């Protein structure tokens, strides 16, 4: 597997944010990762799209190689970071691609109607209302973070299709290196935020895709807690796939992204 090597750190809102850039083109795809993940999950997708688009994948604060401040992990804090980075690296026309946790971040940013945003592509997004995580699951994740055995169990839960040993170890590594501050903040606050009242401000097409075998955020979550708040959204599934589509089914996801970008430009 080919990985991009041009990691860049930039000071955004007083902290160092890491991002990976690859390719060029008049349209930029801004990729945001899942809770406990990193920009690396997007490399298999970016490697296929970089010949057509400028691709930028961001490590959200407290994740990957970005700095981990003690505070500042609300949905709007993370959206502020993304918005500031977009301005700093001179992105004009762009598509936001958010996965899981960052799906909610992408929705929050899109509701601000940023100049240049053409559409949203959301992969198994956290809904605009509180995410349905049981109290027992929250407690378990809060008390076991940093334990390799827990990260391995999470890997089994969030994937359904086989991946290589290298990818498995990267998923586990990303989980373990997520800062405690970011981890706790999402589970105790961010995932519980309700931004549904802002969804009427969305003025771009939204395309949602999920794995039919997703056990972390089941497909019905999108039908009951996300789609009812969006006036211009589509919903698709990838059969036999789990929660980590960029790792599990990158080819199918690339096809979906290209199709949706093409449709948004025809509308």
TrEMBL record:
Keywords: Hydrolase. The keyword Transit peptide does not apply. SUPFAM superfamilies: alpha/beta-Hydrolases (SSF53474). The keyword Hydrolase applies. Coiled coil: none annotated. Signal peptide: none annotated. One of its GO terms (molecular function) is hydrolase activity. It holds the Pfam family Abhydrolase_1. InterPro entries: AB_hydrolase_1, AB_hydrolase_fold, AB_hydrolase_sf. Residues 28-138 form the AB hydrolase-1 domain. PANTHER family: AB HYDROLASE SUPERFAMILY PROTEIN YCLE, MONOACYLGLYCEROL LIPASE. This is Alpha/beta fold hydrolase. It comes from Spirosoma flavum. The lineage of its organism: Bacteria, Pseudomonadati, Bacteroidota, Cytophagia, Cytophagales.
